[in-house]
Amino acid sequence: MIIESRAYARAGLLGNPSDGYFGKTISIIVKNFGARISLYQSPELHIEPQEQDLTTYRNVYHLRESVSLTGYSGGIPLIKASIKKFVEYCESNNIRLSNKNFTVRYGSSIPRQVGLAGSSAIIIATLRALMQFYGVKIPLEVLPNVALSVEVDELGIHAGLQDRVAQSYEGCVYMNFDKAIMEEKKHGLYERLDPTLLPKLYIAYKTSLGKMSSGKVFNDLRSRFDKGDPHVVGTLSKIAGLAEEGRDAIIQNDHARLFHLINQNFDYRCQIMNISESNMELIQTARNCGASASFTGSGGSIIGMYTDDEMLNKLVVKLKDINARVIKPYIV
């Protein structure tokens, strides 16, 4: 029997990047893109390499293009680390795994390193396949913690829980990572919001921006936060407050308020982080069309509201002029 599992791209709507700093966020799942895992029993444990894992290239320019698009490591380290953390979770919870091996194959359509959570999608999909293969149940609120430990503990990548929570719960999720709650429960408070209450949303991304991991983007912010920089701490608190306001706006169908909050999220972000010209071009182009715009994650893609098909068509045309693709996110 072949086990198939999936996890989808994630777009942060409000609260970025406060999730790693005891903040609050709202995220949606973007089913236009996903990571998939195929797993079946075999005599030995084998991970099948994909194109981004190969070490043979046509020439030096092919190597450069490959590294710029997908990074140096490919997906195999993510899968290896996911298997290791799954085994450690089972051991720590006295779960005995049956004595059988498997072959695992992965693939992903999620644009790499543009803030759509492609790495964590591979991890979540792998953990889901392993749970099914071995008949293990990891509680839904705990699954994001296990997934986060894969990147933080095993691969040394700075990250927060937001991506993994959204990809575990799916749909539209409001997350509260308040420090007291995290210390008491070892996880945040997660609330599913009705996706049908969301306004018209678009996502736009530039694949040419996929050259820097989000862990590198946030290193300086982490250092300043840990030192207690009052400007950083205060601004992150304001950003977290936007997510709380956004939750109420969604429930109350206050789309005008939500439009403002999305823009404010990015404007606050600019106060504590440097924004590249390419990323700023995405934001300004969308706003010049009349849409709201903010990052979906660490940069490279944006999310916002539009009012009608005329504005959406304008977004498609104007963003195409700067080599960006526009999509309407499928959430359910």
From TrEMBL:
It holds the Pfam family GHMP_kinases_N. PANTHER family: WITH PUTATIVE URIDYL PYROPHOSPHORYLASE-RELATED. GO terms for molecular function: kinase activity. InterPro entries: GHMP_kinase_C_dom (IPR013750), GHMP_kinase_C_sf (IPR036554), GHMP_kinase_N_dom (IPR006204), Glucuronokinase-like (IPR053034), Ribosomal_Su5_D2-typ_SF (IPR020568). Keywords: ATP-binding, Kinase, Nucleotide-binding, Transferase. Residues 84-171 form the GHMP kinase N-terminal domain. This is GHMP kinase. Residues 248-314 form the GHMP kinase C-terminal domain.
